[in-house]
Amino acid sequence: MQIFNKRLDLQAFLAPLLKENKTVGLVPTMGALHQGHLSLMKKALEENDQVVVSVFVNPTQFNNTEDLEKYPRNLQKDAETIASLSDKIVLFAPEISEMYQGTPRSGSYDFQGLDKVMEGAFRPGHFEGVATIVEKLFTLVTPTRAYFGEKDYQQILIIKRMVAERKLPVLLVPCPIIREESGLAMSSRNERLSVEGHQKAAFIYKVLQEAKARFASQPIAQIKAFVEEQFTQNSDFQLEYFLIVDENTLQEAQQKEAHKAYRAFVAAYIEGVRLIDNLAL
């Protein structure tokens, strides 16, 4: 498998493919690859002539310095994981100085309010950082398609908005959340949990499932109160937020309307590790 650390080297590799109108699939990641990432790569392999996987822990999307420092990194293991999947994938693993000339800074975007709720409310500047690095990758790779997991559902809507604003010729492909047998959404942050914490973290999905089961028959306020009470009673967790929102606008729903689609979102801490999940209702 080929590994590129420099932008110009990757572009030189891709240039003849793009000249022949070959399709390129991009899977942007921050490494610590798991089965969720592999599902994105498999989808990209099915739909494109060439796949590029980027591994880059992007400093501008972390509002918490400790979180950035503790984010799991193992590039050699990631490379071996990718190589075991297919020889049709190349890995792009640049240094910070390669992606940001000078001090890393986020660009400016109009997300039309998508960034003001949930992750945006609790992680100031996060989505500007995400959009900045994804725009850099899209401009560099010029992919036909780019693949993102729905665990970061809000991020997908943010990137769609950025693509529309910047008029970038790329198709975004959202992919389903991959879960462990317990139901816990796969995440690189799961690596930071103890064995016991890992088992306990499945509680998040169980509560989401119960919220979904109640959605048809109970008012939203009642469901929200139920979920918050479940977390209050579980001393292993600190709930940051639980919201039911319109899945297109991300605006919090007060009552159900027949023509709208809704999704429940949760963020909670266990053992000091922040986990997020969501479920279509």
Gap from first CA to last CA:
41 Å
Return the CATH topology of the largest domain. Rossmann fold
Shape: globular
Order of adjacent strands in the largest pleated sheet: 1-4-3-2-5-6
Tally the structural domains: 2
Largest sheet: 6 strands, parallel
Structural class: alpha/beta
CATH architecture assignment of the largest domain: 3-Layer(aba) Sandwich
In terms of quaternary structure, what is this? Answer: single chain
Helical content stands at: 40-55%
- SSE order in H/E notation? EHEHEHHEHHHEHEHHHEEE
Query: Helical region count?
Result: 11
Question: Class of the largest domain, according to the CATH hierarchy?
Answer: Alpha Beta
Taken as a percent bin, the fraction of beta residues is: 15-25%
The average pLDDT is 97
Key terms for this structure?
281 residues; alpha/beta; Rossmann fold; Pantoate--beta-alanine Ligase, Chain: A,domain 2; 2 domains; three-stranded antiparallel sheet; globular
Topology:
Blueprint: E1 3-4, H1 7-19, E2 24-29, H2 35-47, E3 50-55, H3 65-70, H4 75-85, E4 89-92, H5 96-99, H6 119-122, H7 126-141, E5 145-149, H8 153-166, E6 171-175, H9 195-200, H10 203-215, H11 220-233, E7 237-246, E8 262-270, E9 273-280
Parallel strand pairs: 1-4, 2-3, 2-5, 3-4, 5-6
Antiparallel strand pairs: 7-8, 8-9
Helix pairs in contact: 7-8, 10-11
